[in-house]
Amino acid sequence: MNAPPALDAPPSLDASSFRSPADDPNSPLSRVLRQPLILGLFLPIQDGGWTPSTLPRTTTWTFDYNAALTRRAEALGFDLVFGLAQWASAGGYGGDIRYREISLDSFMATAALSACTERILLISTLHVLYGPWHPVHLAKFGATLDHISKGRWGINVVTGYAEREPLMFGMKKIEHDARYAMADVFVQRLKQLWSLPGNLTVDGPYWAMEDAFVSPKPVHGRPVLVNAAGSPAGIEYAARHSDLIFITSPAGNQIEDALASLPGHIANIRATAAAAGRSLRTMINPMVICRDTEREAIAYRDAIEAAADVVAMENFAEHGRRGDSQAWRNQRRQHRAIGGNLHLVGSPEQIVDKLIKLKAAGIDGVQLTFYDFAPDLEYFGEKVLPLLHEAGLRIPDLPATAVQAQQQEHQS
């Protein structure tokens, strides 16, 4: 049998020419997208989680702890889990707790979770521009993980806004929009390697390859693609490539500010995706502080804040200021020690009311964080999740055929 011919030049790189797992009604991603509100858990694979506080808690960065959280989230019906990627120097962000000095690698940790879960999506974060990453590497690793997980693995592509992280790899920081131009080419090459039946030969830009080929091909077209963005360049990248985009509130971490600023921001994202011939789902990262009453929830929040490691908190804030992420510009950050992109504080009924309002503002999903993950997740599952079902924000996990039958019955 003759070998397939090499491609002297890449074929059209139009985003619509590469099949998304969302195009397959039986893919794990399509199952998730049928939910009125996508429900995710932002795993604490880094020491201190999202909160530089010394208030006692069980939360730890260890794999066993995060695996137990993932299995519990899956049992509760959560749709996905997600891990961040960071490159901190010795001492992390300082303070008495040496905030975030220790962290698991997101790619390795979430890959390992595929062996101990069955249904939940697993999203790894990767700085694709750091160090020796090449599209052929990640295309092969990603296709392998796609098969191991049966289509449940995805990659959160990040370009690295931090000032000091590239120095670890002997690199100088790349200008903001130039990073997205490079990531665009990187992901174009991934899509080609995942879809083309023959070899790929390109001179560049950025990554050359000759007779490159990756097998096996992914199960549902390609793995899930995600990114976090707030800048025009980041949103345009997401419109071309991503299935999910993580966003922040343009106005700040308090719910009232978010509800005022999100509709216009999300409308712009959707319009940008529509211009690229695609649809894009938005997710946001709330820190949930919930107790039986609002007074108890506020007392819990205040106790976390009162125990803040101020040095760690200020160092972490300075790390953000020295970077060039545009998602955090012009934000008012109240209760900074709490962490998370958005604070939801209150009783179970109040939390659900705020999630309803976020959905009305255009949010398609939430990636939740907690202060004390294991007990707070359990409380959420017991007290909040049933109310989400009652409110219609969560529905039973129906197969694609049942959903299509319901839609046809409704249309008739």
UniProtKB/TrEMBL annotation:
Residue spans of biased composition, Low complexity class:
1-17
**Annotated spans, Disordered:** 1-28
Asked whether the UniProt record includes DNA repair among its keywords, one would answer no
Q: Which Pfam families does the entry mention?
A: Bac_luciferase (PF00296)
| UniProt keyword list | Flavoprotein, FMN, Monooxygenase, Oxidoreductase
Presence of keyword Flavoprotein: yes
GO MF terms, alphabetically ordered: monooxygenase activity; oxidoreductase activity, acting on paired donors, with incorporation or reduction of molecular oxygen
Which SUPFAM superfamilies did the record assign? Answer: Bacterial luciferase-like
Q: Which residues are in the Luciferase-like domain?
A: 40-364
InterPro entries assigned to the protein according to its UniProt record, in alphabetical order: Luciferase-like_dom, Luciferase-like_sf, SsuD_RutA_monooxygenase
Query: Known CDD domains for this protein?
Result: Alkanesulfonate_monoxygenase
Membrane-spanning intervals of the chain = none
What is the name attached to this protein's record? LLM class flavin-dependent oxidoreductase
Organism of origin: Achromobacter aloeverae
Q: What lineage does UniProt assign to this protein's organism?
A: Bacteria, Pseudomonadati, Pseudomonadota, Betaproteobacteria, Burkholderiales
